Amino acid sequence: MNTHKALLAALLVPLGATLAVAPAAFAAASPGPAAASVSAGAAAPAGPKEAAAAAFRSPEAALGRVAHPLRTTESRGGLADLRPFGRMVGDARVVGLGEATHSSHEFFTVRHRVLRYLVENKGFRAFALEAPWSTGLRLDAYLTHSTGDLKQIMDEELQGTYRWWNNAEYRDLLQWIRAYNVKHPKDPVRFVGDDGGFAGAELYDKVSAYTAKARPELAPKLTELYRGLRPTTDADTYVNDYLAKPLAERKELAERTGRAVDLLKKRPGTGADADAHAWALQHATAIHQMTTLYAFDWDNPQDISAGMRYRDRIMAENVAWWQRRTGDKILLAAHNGHLALKTYAPGTYPKTQGEFLREQLGDGYLSVGLTFDHGSFNAFGQDGGVHRFTVGPAAPGTTEHTLDRVRHRDYVVDLRNAPAAARAWLAAPHTVKNIGATYPGIADAPQIRLAASHDVVIHLHRVQAARMLK
Questions:
Q1: In sequence order, what DSSP letters do the residues of 297-324 get, joined into one string?
Q2: For residues 406 and 459, what is the distance between their CA atoms, to the nearest angstrom?
Q3: CB 115 within 8 A of CB 129
Q4: For residues 93 and 126, is the Cβ–Cβ distance under 8 A?
Q5: What number of other Cβ atoms are within 10 A of residue 273's Cβ?
């Protein structure tokens, strides 16, 4: 299996891992060396008064005046320090909370804290994750009705590169949701998988059950269109086998699943059947999303860009669909590069989930970047194995170097209301840590304009590697 297929066989195709196999494409679009920060690039002041004035005008000093410290990065304890964050959220219906690595403890525990706050104080009722739609259904059934065993579901569903979510921190988050739902059975917190890397057997079964009951005339045709597609193996094996098929066959399978979606669309539900039809159509759409994603020519670097754009578009569409259908306010979890309002790497990754969501929801979508100065994380190494990596303090001129000089150790800051002294720095390009599933990778340090990329930033001084369960 070639490099592109091997990456896709891991189910998740994060920005860093994808670009690691397309150096030529990325190099063509990659910006130059990191720009120096406004304060670092300024001439030395002439005397004490000028020095004090220059310090007051520095971006870190300006941001320090509007930043709000976090009492802790751990998931438990009081939430009063998140009240300023709640004001930043305002009336947003979807809050995208990112991460600068896929496997650092504090990114998951801060996300847990934020979820608790949003559920208890802002009426949020769904948690969406960069995981398959069918995985979301299994976890949602467990969280709302205690269907199945949590460890088994996580082990079976969180395979390949989705394995980064099979960690102790997310297990704790899911157990908190389950405990909350036991106490609030009529107002539960739901779980959404928004990705298209796998379509589990549950989706085929749910579509078949609906058609057998409500549209029996469609059942034979749908059975034929789905022939050979319903998984009978574990997810990792299924995707490896699927991607081993010739491209022409994968394109034909995508055409078939598209016809299945069209059949359901031509027989819309009415009355009491309308809701059941909408869900069945969404499940069929999720199947089609997977087959379409794998119908791109991943052996051709020029086709990677289109495939990555498609993936982020469907993730945004799935989140927006859930929000419209259920009315739930959603905390959305993914990498910073997915949830940003502008792409971190335009040459290879043209449009992000966050940009799609901003177009669909307007101010109803809030992008929150999660950055760090130094620490450790888990990732695939160049040998394909899972390793723990450590990076030192951020270099001068980088985004994190300036953010870490703000007077708080860990804090949240609203970039939309930044003082004038920080705006030029926020609007200028600076290198940022962007560590995907593979390290080191081509896209580890792109240049971004922070104010154009995120509405809010949560900055952490130090992180440590997450505790993986399998």
A1: -TTSHHHHHHHHHHHHHHHHHHHHHHHH
A2: 10
A3: no
A4: no
A5: 16
